[in-house]
Specification:
Elements lengths: L14 E6 L5 E5 L2 H8 L3 H13 L4 E4 L4 H13 L6 H10 L4 H7 L3 H25 L11
Antiparallel strand pairs: 1-2, 1-3
Length: about 150
């Protein structure tokens, strides 16, 4: 989820995400301590303490980038060009439904299976991008469930 977030999205309470290189924990820090309280009901002190811990040992933490809006569109375009279906008419309808807006594409495509296929494709793409980023930063990813 941290890698797939849209960093261009105008969030009322912006966050920065870090990976703790020692524990593997993902830490979400609000831009301001007050935002932590307003956005998630977290104690401003807790947000401040997390931020100060990161500031005290910056080499321990790796900032996790999100995707910008154009990245999300690139993923949808790659999906549309992929082999998600062998049905040429279905593929053409999905391609024609995309006019530069992901939300409108999901509304206009009229094919729930195509939307589910896109989400599966998107998840796999983001996971591959995350793994590449981690390896570039000297970390061999070991995925664990959040359950």
């Amino acid at each position: 989820m941290a890698f797939g977030r849209d960093v261009d999205f105008h969030d009322a309470f912006p966050q920065v995400v870090y990976l703790d290189r020692k524990t593997g924990d993902v830490i979400w820090i609000y831009g301001s301590d007050r935002d932590a309280e307003m956005g998630a009901g977290l104690s401003p002190d807790e947000n401040r303490q997390e931020r100060e811990a990161i500031d005290a040992e910056p080499e321990r933490y790796l900032e996790i980038p999100g995707l910008d809006h154009s990245d999300h569109h690139r993923i949808l375009r790659r999906f549309l060009m992929s082999d998600w279906t062998r049905d040429k008419a279905r593929r053409r309808r999905a391609e024609d439904a995309y006019r530069g807006s992901i939300g409108k594409w999901k509304r206009d495509v009229g094919d729930e299976d195509a939307i589910h296929a896109f989400y599966a494709f998107r998840e796999a793409e983001i996971e591959a991008m995350a793994e590449e980023f981690l390896r570039e930063n000297g970390i061999e990813p070991i995925w664990r469930s959040c359950d």
